[in-house]
Amino acid sequence: MAEERQRSPREIAVDEASIAMLEKADADGVENDAFSRADEQGKPCVFGTDGVCCRICHMGPCKISEYAPGVCGATVDTVAARNLLRQVAAGTSAHSDHARHLVHLLADVAQGRGGHYRISDETRLRAAARLWGIEEHDLETLECAGRLAELFTEEFRLQDGSLKTLELAPKPRQAVWKRAEIAPSGIDRTIVEAMHRTNMGVDHDYRNLIKGALKVAIADGWGGSMIATTISDILFGTPKPVKSRANLGVLEADMVNVLVHGHEPALTEMLVVASHDPEIRAAAAAVGAKGVNLAGICCTANEVLMRHGVPVAGNFLQQELAIVTGAVELMVTDVQCCMASLPEVAKCYHTKILTSNPLARNDGAEAVHFEPEQGLKCAKEILRKAIANYPHRDPKKVAIPNQQKPLVAGFSNETIFEMLGGRFRRSFRPLNDAIITGRVRGVCAVVGCTNARGKMDEYILTLTQELIARNVLVLQTGCAAVACGKAGFLTPETALEMAGPTLREVCEAVGIPPVLHMGSCVDNSRLLMAVTYIVEEGGLGADLSEAPVIGAAPEWMSEKAIAIGHYFVASGVDVVLGHPFHTMGSKNVTKLLCGELESIVGAKFHYISNPARAVEVICEHLEKKRNALGINKQVERKLLDMKDRRELHV
Amino acid sequence: MSKLICSSAIIGARDTVERADAILAQAIAEKGADHPVAFPDTAYYLPVIYSFTGSKVEKLGDMTAILDECRGLVSAPPSDDVWLPYLGNALDAGAATLFAFEVIEACKTVIGPSPVDGIWLGAANDVIMRERGIEFVDGTAPGFAAVVGAAPDSETAVRIARELQEKNLYVFMAGAVDGVTFAEQLESEGVQLGWETRLVPFGRDVSAAIYALGFANRAALSFGGVAPGDFERNLRYNKNRIFAFVLALGEVDDEKYAAAAGAINYGFPTIADTDIPEILPTGVCTYEHVVSNVPHDKIVAKALEVRGCKVKIAKVPIPVAFGPAFEGERIRKVDVHAEFGGNITPGFEFVQSASLDEIEDGAIEIIGPDIDEVPEGTALPLAIWVEAAGRKMQSDFEPILERQIHHLINSAEGIWHMGQRDIIWTRVSKNAFARGFRLRHYGEILHTKLLNDYPAIVDKVKVTLITDRDEVERRLEHARKVYVERNHRLAAMTDESVDTFYSCLLCQSFAPDHVCVITPERLGLCGAYNWLDGKAAHEIDETGPNQPVEKGRCLDPVRGVWEGVNEYVFKNSHKKTKIFTAYSLMSHPMTSCGCFEAIIAYVPECNGVMIVNREFMADTPVGMTFSTLAGMVGGGVQTPGFMGVGKAFLCSPKFLSAEGGVRRVVWMPKELKGIISDDFHARIEADGVPELWDLIADESIATAPGDIRTYMEKVGHPALELPAMDTLWEGLEVPVAAPAPTNGKGEIARVEKASSSSAKSAESSFDPVDQPMHRHGRGCVGPLPSVVQNAAPLKAAPEAATPIIDAASKREPVAKAPEAPVTPSLLRRRLRNLTPIPSR
Question: What is residue B395's predicted lDDT score, i.e. its pLDDT?
Fold first, then answer.
């Protein structure tokens, strides 16, 4: 390390594996890492942080303040809102482009051009088809897949009317969107529209702009992300409960370690297949390795963890630290959240960095050409490169931390239905009952990234631990879930040790951890559906905004997180953020986001930097919803006579 | 600790499936894979497997696939650490256990030991299931307790059983603890076991508990109209309709845990007397799933609380137990302390209304000697003279209250009663007498129960019990006069003489889309509710299952179609039934719930119908048993050509009056003939075909349609002269609504004009039944078809004044119904589509 760190490793991270690797990075002379670069950056630009730097036209850039509008006259309100909308559009585009690639893959498979890809979960395919109104009964599997791919393609190019996927939301929610005029049309069109209205001299009404942000976010959550999750389940399998491990300790000293990193699972799926291929095993053995050990970083990790139990090496901020172990032969990145610095860090070791997506190349990395039809071949080639690199490993530089924790992941909604009632009584009823009787006070989705400006994982862990102690069921996705996995919160034993007594009772009855890992960040769409299923099951309100649920992104950093936050709020679910958007320069925009939105969509944002305070706010919110539902009253057990029974649905 | 339960259940399931596999292998080795296998007299194959999977197990070999399915349902037990969710797996393992149980019990019927042995009854046949199922429908039985294991001693067993009986619950018994069974404990204490007393010993093995669940599944299939294989609806139906629970007495081993997990799938929780782990969070069951360590004196109350089952019981102040479970008790001659009536002494019972200030509520007067004043075994005369007063009491309700006396008296433990009016016979057992039962307790029972069951019409009840022969005879004379008056009053009531019918939606608790329409001349298909009952029930509970149905305008007097009735049926069948005919079998007949006493089925070869009663087990001329037929007719679906009815309807002037009435009857079992003999004779007499009795074939004459036809031709059965039954209504669709007069005179005039011509056309060309029948007043075209009022002049009944079907609609049916005209082949096809006919 060129210079002394401004924050010590213990100030940066809570887990011993990361602390050890930060120390090792310094010792190995790794030039910098995300944390040191954050510190080097120092205090960020005030205008940028406040969202009042306008770079949209070349009369600027303008540094806007309450007293100094931009050259065009744009106020702080306009500029802050406009910048935010652009960020939401960017986040939406990421999830949706991910979805588009999967739609293409589904179409390819349907047309027999999918190589080794196939329909892995026909039940999910047919259920999805029915959900979107396709008469699937008489269709052959591939025919059905083709029809669904067509339907999804249309969701991107739709010009008039609203997205079909919106119909999955409860009716009252659809009505809210209609009334607020934020029901999006085609995903592509909606993003284009967002970019258009944020041009110089177009939309200047901050309220209109924020509504635009909600609209484009809905096209993400209920559009792109929903489509991505659905197709991934169809093609790669709907997640079921699966055991695995998390943290850098999952790397193996005597195996060829290959890390997958990014967000799109298509290539990784083939890597999983290829890693079990006898030829590949033989090749690994030939170089003296016991085999190929596939492990993941970030959300590509979550995708293959959920479906195949592939261990997770780390979350977002551990991508560089994983290389620092000196035991990684190859890291293959796809899209999103892959740091530009990876080739630089890799230079200190033998690690090869490969980029697999033409949208996401990196100067110092090797680009591989990935065609789905040749997916398996490509995957094998990648693994051969890794195997060939194994002999280059420098034993002196290898230090794999022995930290890893067991975990249980794989909680798709389909699994939740079955784990609560088995094949014959699949239902959300036990969860609803647990909430209604107060054993579970409510549900909090703790999601999002980790952020180098703060202490990695700390807020996520504190919040999660406190919530489960207060009998709040925690659902997770993305890097937050990995943080909890590393801390051991994703085991069912956690319920016995850390959960409040009544949540514990429910977890024990079902055999689940009090913290449920529901997938990658694109799978936040699962959370929307989870709340929808809760509402549909009955007894907890008619709309998502009535249910005792809330979202939290304690350590978020990406534009995608901004989009996710917006689609939660647009869906009627409040969101707690560990730090605010870059909009604080406008009091009006802040007031709108953290207050007035409630009257428009029934939910709002909360900016809370202190985890203890966040716990209070979350619990208060859940109790407020419970009170409104009238479920906080002690209800006497109703014994049913014949007349009562006749009123029950059969 | 539910992990322990789930682990045990999964291990228990694995072992049970293995055991079933071994037994099945042995059965196949001994008898071959093609050897037939079935539970006795059921149309539902192995009912649990059939209802869950839709698979029809008919041969031993069919069960191999079932056990494969079971293995797929049993996962590995949860690991010691970092376990995966186990609740769903345990429930699936439970289901696998049930399938395996059913396989085991089915194999026993083939290779032994027979499930029916000594006190053990094995599977209930469909007759029992239907008879008893009705009690679950109308609430007489609020649910059942599946008792598994044994109580610590026989006295405790008796106490628990008595309490369950008093709560009106059925007690289904299976399984043992260290070789001791609950049923044998009861038997050793002299408790009478069997379906009559609701104490049903299924079998000594835990696997015999499957008969309890098979019963529940069949209730859903037959009464709920649930399709085989639709496990989701079946289980939801069980959770929300059949309020059952498991009482686990004594040690709970893996097999019992597995069985309990199976029961939880139905929403049936387990209540244990031992200290096993509990599962308290709710969701699969209505409330808790497993509750343990419950003391024996609290276990019944706790079980009802956990199941969420409300049992309304008026505490009857008598020294013996009271509840419908005791209705089936028999009292042998040697056990009698005193008896009354039964052609030995004069005996009768009588209810009359009194004004409120006339009687003192709760007064019980005894005239003559009480039973402690006479030697043991004496037969005394008896009058049970009840006076009831209430603001809404009316003389129409007297016979209804009077009819309750039989089951109310019979419900007392150790007291037996049969018959009604002046043909009663009642006994008090030595045991009941020893416990302090005296004559006044007859009064206590009637006072308490009549006030309690009929609060809306009865405010005061006085009972006089008379054993003084002279006084009995004096009052009997008066009572007989009233009996005769009542007969006349009821017989005089016709469908035309009232504006309002009554619905019965009681069975909607089981068959959600079925609507019974009860008219003065057509009682409910269960045989239990006539028009007066409906009226009274409505008075008693205005929002209850019996609602007045305004007839509204008559759309078709022949088939019995009214606008108001149609609207009511449409709404209350949840838009499933658009048109309802009261008097037709072939055109939009009434739907059936599943409780019917008899089924009428069209026999194409004979141009008529066969009627089969519930008790008849053999194949009927249409190639199906009652059970199989019932499976098609029930569930609230209109099936032209097939209909469930109450037996008394067979003797009504409105019986199939649109299609020829009794003349259409070509076959019925001897037993049924015997039951309805008197009234049916009166009917055919009145219809001018007294010779018909001998022309109707029974099973001793013919059992195949062809043979019946031959017989009919030989004896000259009148059905052969009638128009073809299947094409009777071709092109004659029932108008959904009569043309509604919109503006004043012109419209009305048109209607009136149309009415005269259409009434004429109805008689001359529309009515498919030939002229002579009109002279006998059949149908509601022409004269009022009342037997009593058959002197009525040839003038149109009020509803015949509305147009029936105008000439145009005959030429070109306006509202073409979605269904094609009924033809024999279509009927058969339709039936096959409903449920393929088992090839037995």
Answer: 84
- Looking at residue B418, its pLDDT comes to 83
- Answer whether A430 sits within 8 Å of B82, measured CB to CB: no
**How far apart (Å, rounded) are the C-alpha atoms in residues B90 and A421?**
9
d(CA A514, CA A533): 19
pTM score, two decimals?
A: 0.80
Which carries the bigger pLDDT value, residue B131 or residue A236? A236
Q: Enumerate the residues of chain B whose CB falls inside 8 A of the CB of residue A492.
A: 82-83, 85
Q: What residue of B is the nearest CA neighbor of A418? A: B88
Q: Say yes or no for a CB contact (<8 Å) between B2 and A508.
A: yes
pLDDT at B735: 64
Domains of chain B by start residue, with CATH: 2-307 (3.40.50.2030), 324-473 (3.30.1650.10), 574-840 (3.40.1470.10)
What's the whole-number mean pLDDT along residues A474-496? 96
Type of residue numbered A41? Q
> What is the separation of C-alpha A63 from the centre of its chain, rounded to a whole number of angstroms?
33
Closest approach of B233 to chain A, Cα-based (Å): 6
Q: Provide the residue count of chain A.
A: 650
Contact indicator for A306, A241 with CB cutoff of 8 Å: no
Question: Domain A248-397 is in which class?
Answer: alpha beta
Look at the domain A408-629 and name its fold. Rossmann fold (3.40.50)
Distance between A648 CA and the closest CA of chain B, angstroms: 6
B23 close to B31: Cβ distance less than 8 angstroms: no
Reported ipTM: the value is 0.94
What letter does residue A344 receive in the DSSP assignment?
H
Identify the residue whose tokens are 């509402």: A535
Distances (CA, A) of A31 to A42, A341, A344, A608, B576: 17, 10, 8, 34, 76
Cα B771 to Cα B561, B581, B781, distances in angstroms: 21, 21, 11
User: SS3 of B516, please?
Assistant: strand
Tell me the pLDDT tens digit for each residue of A123-134: 999 999 999 999
Low-confidence ranges of chain B (pLDDT < 50): 1, 738-840
Could A422 and B85 be called an inter-chain contact, meaning their C-beta atoms sit closer than 8 Å?
A: no
Domain edges within chain A: 73-236, 248-397, 408-629
Unique residue bearing structure tokens 């007294």: B690
| CATH hierarchy code of domain A73-236 | 1.20.1270.30
A73-236 and A408-629 have identical folds: no
The Cα A320–Cα A326 span in angstroms is 11
Q: Give Cβ neighbours of residue B18 (< 8 Å, ≥ 6 apart).
A: none
To 5 degrees, how large is the angle CA A630–CA A634–CA A639?
105
Predicted confidence at residue A188, as pLDDT, reads 98
The pLDDT assigned to B737 comes to 55
Chain B residues in contact with A495 by the CB 8 A cut-off are none
